[in-house]
Amino acid sequence: MKKSVLAGASILTLTFASPAMAQSNSSTADQTGDGNSAVVAQPGSGNASEITQDGLATGVDGIANEASVAQAGTGGFSEVIQTGDNSATVTQTATSIGMNSELIQENAGGGTSNTATVMQDGTGSGIGSGTGSLIEQTGTDGTVTVMQGAGSTDALSIVIQSGDDAEATVTQDSGTGSTSTILQPGVFVRAIVSQTGDGNDSTVTQDFENNVVDVLQNGAGNVSDATQSGLRGIIDVDQVGDSNTSTIEQTGEVMTAFVDQGGTGHSVTILQSTGTPASSVVRAGAVVTQRGNTNTAEVDQSGRQTGTSFGQFTAPIRLSNAAPFADVRQTGDDNFVDIDQPGNSVGVFAFQTGNRNRAIVLQTVEDAETLNTQTGDDNSINVTQSVTANRGLGSAINTQIGNRNTIITDQSGTGQPFSRIPRAEVRQEGDDNFADTMQEGIGAQAFVDQIGDMNRSTVRQDTDPGGIADVNQNGDNGISEVIQTGFFHEARLDQFGTFNESSITQDGTQQRANVTQRGTLNESTVMQTGPARNTATVTQNGEEGDSLLMQDGESNIATVTQGGMMDVSTITQTGVGNTVTVSQN
Length: 585
Prior knowledge:
Layout: E1 3-5, E2 11-16, H1 20-23, E3 26-32, E4 37-42, E5 48-54, E6 65-71, E7 77-84, E8 86-92, E9 100-107, E10 114-120, E11 132-138, E12 143-153, E13 156-164, E14 167-176, E15 179-187, E16 190-196, E17 201-207, E18 212-220, E19 223-230, E20 235-242, E21 245-252, E22 255-264, E23 267-273, E24 284-293, E25 296-301, E26 325-333, E27 336-341, E28 347-355, E29 358-365, E30 369-377, E31 380-387, E32 395-403, E33 406-413, E34 423-431, E35 434-440, E36 445-451, E37 456-463, E38 469-476, E39 479-486, E40 490-498, E41 501-506, E42 512-520, E43 523-528, E44 535-543, E45 546-551, E46 557-565, E47 568-573, E48 579-584
Parallel strand pairs: 1-3, 2-4, 3-5, 4-6, 5-7, 6-8, 7-9, 8-10, 9-11, 10-12, 11-13, 12-14, 13-15, 14-16, 15-17, 16-18, 17-19, 18-20, 19-21, 20-22, 21-23, 22-24, 23-25, 24-26, 25-27, 26-28, 27-29, 28-30, 29-31, 30-32, 31-33, 32-34, 33-35, 34-36, 35-37, 36-38, 37-39, 38-40, 39-41, 40-42, ...
């Protein structure tokens, strides 16, 4: 045993329970400088303690070095190396077996002291086994607390931090082979990790101011990897269950990410950045909540907000110059959400309840937002929005209730500043329904409402300033197609019943088409082409109604009303100033 007291203010106390030799404990202390203090108590057996302290100048709080080690267990190892203004406490309780603690602190500048506290109650595999606690911190006013509970076996905690006012807390209550790694250089960084269960793994890497990470893992085989740099930060991960995985990487200013997973086999990946700020309030936010089993959420977003408010949906839906934002909530099994939204002021809400539902959202440039809600099994939503400047907002609201329903929405272009369009709202209730909407240009709006089974809707709008297609199918096996290109067009389809089919194609100027079909096996085709004021209205009530209407020239108006069975009407107009009205009862 070596004792070194080289300064008058140094104090060294070694305390052993009697008889000391029978316990096979060893303690080595080497102290140099001013104001050192080392206290070692070894009432256990087979323990080893090594302390090396170099006080240098006493810090602003009057502390040069302080170290206190208590080893009451069996086969424990503790090493404390301190330079400058630091304080260390290591406690290996009577329940501990083979626990290791290695603690290195440096504060040569004499600022406010660093503090490290290690409490070990569990079981390790002895010195050199790669288990236990490793702490290394440099800078001033850093704080590290590591607690490895009595129910823990071969737990490993690694904390390496530097800078000023860094803080790390690791709690490993119980379980076998859990690992926590915290790497945080910088200022004001803080990390809290709590693990209960077997084989959990947490890695935290963060730097540059005010970052906060809080990781809770309760179960077996959970993995969390959190990386952030920038000004603010905040990553919060809660995983309760088994084999869940969370990967978060965020850079920029005022980033936010929250992950809450309960169940088995969930996976979350969040990549977000905010780029160069235009103001001091630049944000990127993502929230993912998953319940059930093997759900997957992937969020990749970048950009920055143009205003000062954080994005959220209101009624009517809009983002109001908000930051990239994603809110994903999944309940059930094998659900999947993929969000990729670079640009400015983008936002996504994706809510899925059931099994094997899929939602894929790709949004580019400014002010795009979408709200997706799915309830049932095997439903699918695919949204692609590309919106340019001029306050153009492409908003999509999709709702599906039932099974095996599909929504595809593709919107591109710039909306008018006042109304902030184009937008698409699709609601499907039933089974095996399909809605495909593609819109380009200014002023396109599409509303699709399908209630029943095996309905199919297709809307294509290539608008100038006009648009608006309203499709409402209530029944089964309805087929609707609307294609509009040009000015001021409007098409509304209303089909009630089964096996109804309607097709509208409009090309020229100021077209309007209105088709209402009720009953069974009705069929209507409307085609309007040419520059003029085309208007077509078709109403069919009954079964087997059939209407074909084609208009080409100028100022055309055609109205067909059929209320009966087996009615057939065919109208073709080419020329100037034509008007036709047909009524069959």
